[in-house]
Amino acid sequence: MSIVDRRPWVEKYRPRTLDDVVNQKGIIKRLKQFVKDTSMPHLIFAGPAGTGKTTSALAMVRDIFKKEMLPNVNYLELNASDARGIDVIRTYIKDFAKARPPVNTPFKILILDEADNMTAPAQQALRRTMEKYTKNCRMILICNYSNKLIPPIQSRCVVFRFSSLNNDDIKERIKLIASNEQIKVNPGGLGALVDVSRGDCRRAINYLQSCATISKEIDQDIVLCIAGEVPPDKIKEMLTIAFEGQLSFAIKLLNDLIRNYGLSGRNIIKNIHREVYDMAISEDMKIELSKILAEFEYRLSQGATEEIQLQALLAKIVLLKG
Amino acid sequence: MAETKAKLPWIEKYRPKSLKDMAIPSAKSSGHKVNLAEELTNFVRNFFIEIKKINEINKEIRNHNRNATEKDQKEEIRLSFEKSAILLEGKPGIGKTSIVYALANDLNMDVIETNASDTRTRDALERKLNETTKSRGIMDFAKESRQKLILIDEVDGIYGTKDRGAVPTILNLIETTQFPIILCSNEFKQGLQSLYQKIKKVEVQPLSKLEAIKIASRVLKNEKISGISSGEIEAIVEKNGGDLRAVINDLQAIAKGSDFPDVVLLNNLHRDSIEEIFSLIRELFQDVKTLKEARNLTDRSDVDYNFLYKWVSENLPSFMHVNSDLANAWENLSLADEIFGRIRKNMYWGLLPYFYDLFAGGVTLSKKESDSRKGFVRIKNPQYFSSTTLNSAEKSLLEKINRKYNIPQDELMQDFLPFLQVLSSSSRKHQKIISDWFELDTKEKKMLKSD
Ligand SMILES: Nc1ncnc2c1ncn2[C@@H]1O[C@H](COP(=O)(O)OP(=O)(O)OP(=O)(O)O)[C@@H](O)[C@H]1O
Ligand SMILES: [Mg+2]
Questions:
Q1: Chain A residues touching residue B361 (CB < 8 angstroms)
Q2: Which of B109, B116, B129, B115 is nearest to B171 (CA)?
Q3: Would you tell me how many other CB atoms lie within 10 Å of the CB of residue B383?
Q4: Minimal-distance CA residue of chain A relative to B424
Q5: A-proximal residues of B, 126-145, CB under 8 Å
Q6: pLDDT for B355-413, tens place per residue?
Q7: CATH number of this structure's domain B24-204, picked from the four choices 2.60.120.10, 3.40.190.10, 3.40.50.300, 3.90.1150.10
Q8: Mean pLDDT, chain A, integer
């Protein structure tokens, strides 16, 4: 088995150039324009996980350098696991920004991944470096939460907000990968993959790869099983019965669910929690329910016995109503 | 290759070279309006006049001392703090750094600068500033060099432990300087009082809409860009509240290309401010009526849970006053906190949704009694922002994964790790492939077991 085969698909299918990036059309257009003009301001890419921030930054670097990416020479990528304290910013980073770019290179690019994890003093230390050496070096700061970047840093950048992918984009991506990996995904399976990944493309691809370890033909059941989800009405039915005080009937329904959907106890609890928000009970009761679920999910995560915990959970819910 | 010649981003390309090119922001000093350009020009001119007098007097004093008996010795005199140094305080991107350079340029002076990108310990500062600025340097006689202006930029970026001794050194410099000193800062910072107390402070105001529009239009004209309507320029200016740098940056971002201006993108370009958290906290405490609303609010917000939960705890007492409500709210917050502890201890992120429920909905919905206190509530900033720290086994596992794949830490923990857990528990073979690939030891392998 070659090393390449072991790569998670999210890595294997990471877009290489801006043209390959399917989502964030407006932003990608801008980035292409910057490449075309060989001119760009400093940038902040902000947004939730799996929306293509790092991918787009690296793709842009690749496009600017015409595929000749030379780490430490024409670009530098640092993430949270690299040291990025105030000292590093004042020495290593400043020196990188200060040094002229190689010949035939318009400017160097510094990518700071997870910039929102940098301390405020470290961010302060970036301010003048960003201004004084712009000629040599442009920066792309990537973060989930741009409000954790201090205002003078935000002022020095254009802030692009990456939003969650829409379902069609995710479907496109899944179809492409599936056909490359010679996997069949039927429409039900495709829809389910989109549902369970909730706008996070990375998650969708991870689920796809997980499903593929079970079968080369993927349908809704496999996806729901891997993602550990149950149709909502089944859960509602069980809860209603529990609230009516019929403990043993509720337990029977629970056992059916476990048997029919092959769910783990923790997944059952998660499915219940998802329904809590819209149930016809008082808000206080919802909060109490949430507390109970938290406690039982925790016990299960610590290795407690599923049958015992789930029955005890239902019994508690029955009591709650009374 | 002409193409590879870098073009400066607009904010640097249009950094004003002279006071004439600038929009002079309005400014206040001890409560009075001042004209910033005049104020600074006068400050510099007066400094040189006064320092010349003082130098002459001191020369006489030294002459006198040389011949005088010990008890007739006189002390040399010094220029007062307010005449040697001036502090410009104001929001980012309104021209503080620029005005110093423009002024120096107009007066044909050199700027000696230190800023937050420099280490500013006593030693480092002395090396950088004192050497070049002490009087009577041989160089000064040798080539009749240009006068100098000292800029101590970003003083709020002086950082306690790493810049130890900076404040006394600066104070000492101000006392003995032969050149005028201008300091810049965004805001007051605890730990710098001893400096702030002594020097003259000028509050620089954000630029007016009119001024900002004027400069923005000039930039666009110079770039020969005509497709942006005045309404759109105004929208960009409005959004950035007097931060001209941000305005120019945003213009560059939208102004070129086939489909410009892209209105959707334009609406999406915005910077975050603390105000957003303020209004979020207000909404949470004052408007939220159901658990679902609370959850939607926390989901929708761009704020990190870890961060938000501290804001909630800090502001709880300002919004709730009835003891029974407070008891319930604190109980729920404390449960949330316990859940968070469990999450961290076991790296089990599955509990996150309950944590959200309890610290947001659980707290705000505890408010039952109608509260007599009405009106505006001031939001307080939380005191501590410690970000999550990992234990050593977690760290080493994440590092190993990170060596192979560059995935941000949060995503790694919340997304990628569970995925690896699923994969490695699906079969022995997978488990082995994975642990071989990442070169995991037994402790780390254990963390990948999901059940
Ligand atoms: N008053 C102004 N007139 C003209 N241009 C300005 C003005 N203020 C800001 N700019 C533009 O914004 C850029 C940044 O301004 P400057 O560096 O002076 O901001 P600052 O007040 O020092 O901000 P910070 O507190 O973030 O350091 C300038 O290069 C210029 O393009
Ligand atoms: Mg400045």
A1: 283, 286-287
A2: B129
A3: 7
A4: A210
A5: none
A6: 999 999 999 999 886 765 667 788 887 754 434 455 667 777 777 777 777 666 666 76
A7: 3.40.50.300
A8: 89
Q: Are A33 and B246 a contacting pair at CB < 8 A?
A: no
pTM: 0.77
Closest ligand relative to B96 C-alpha: 1
Secondary structure in 3-state letters for chain B: CHHHCCCCCHHHHCCCCCHHHCCCCEEEECCEEEEHHHHHHHHHHHHHHHHHHHHHHHHHHHHHHHHCCHHHCCCCCCCCHHHHEEEEECCCCCCHHHHHHHHHHHCCCEEEEECCCCCCCHHHHHHHHHHHHCCCCHHHHHHCCCCEEEEECCHHHCCCCCCCCHHHHHHHHHHHCCCCEEEEECCCCCCCHHHHHHCEEEEECCCCHHHHHHHHHHHHHHCCCCCCCHHHHHHHHHHHCCCHHHHHHHHHHHCCCCCCCCHHHHHHCCCCCHHHHHHHHHHHHHCCCCHHHHHHHHHHCCCCHHHHHHHHHHHHHHHCCCHHHHHHHHHHHHHHHHHHHHHHHHCCHHHHHHHHHHHHHHHHCCCCCCCCCCCCCCCCCCCCCCCCCCCHHHHHHHHHHHHHCCCCHHHHHHHHHHHHHHHHHHCHHHHHHHHHHHCCCHHHHHHHCCC
List the beta bridge partners of residue B253.
none
Q: A35-71 pLDDT, tens per residue?
A: 998 889 999 999 887 788 999 999 999 999 886 888 8
Residue nearest to atom 11 of ligand 1 (CA): B245
**Digit-coded pLDDT (tens) for B147-165:** 899 999 999 888 877 788 8
Q: Would you place residue B1 in the very low, low, confident or very high pLDDT band (cuts 50, 70, 90)?
A: very low
CATH code assigned to A3-161: 3.40.50.300
Give yes or no for residue A136 having a pLDDT over 50. yes
**Topology annotation, domain A232-321:** Zinc Finger, Delta Prime; domain 3 (1.20.272)
Q: How confident is the model over B55-93, as pLDDT tens digits?
A: 999 999 999 998 888 888 888 899 999 999 999 999 999
B358 part of contact set with chain A, CB < 8 Å: yes
Nearest to B360 by CA among B325, B308, B304, B322: B308
Please, which residues have CB less than 5 A from ligand 2, an ion? B 97
**Which of A61, A69, A84, A147 best tests the B interface by mutation, with the highest count of B CBs <10 A?**
A147
Burial class, B376, CB count within 10 angstroms (exposed 0-12 / middle 13-18 / buried 19+) = exposed
Mutation site, A65, A66, A277, A284, interface B, largest B CB count within 10 A: A277
Give yes or no for residue B361 CB within 6 A of ligand 1. no
pLDDT at A11: 85
The pLDDT confidence band at residue B109, using thresholds 50, 70 and 90, is very high
Going from the Cα of B185 to the center of ligand 1, the distance in angstroms, rounded, reads: 13
Q: What is the pLDDT of residues A69-95, one digit of tens each?
A: 888 888 999 987 778 888 899 999 999
Report the pLDDT averaged over residues B162-172. Answer: 86
Q: What is A167-227's CATH number?
A: 1.10.8.60
Centre of ligand 1 to C-alpha B97, Å, is: 7
pLDDT of residue A163: 82
Q: Structural domain boundaries of chain A?
A: 3-161, 167-227, 232-321
* A37 CA → ligand 2 middle, Å: 27
Q: Where are the domains of chain B?
A: 24-204, 209-268, 274-364, 392-448
Please give the average per-residue pLDDT across B249-261, as a whole number. 77
What ligand has the least distance to the C-alpha of B211? 1
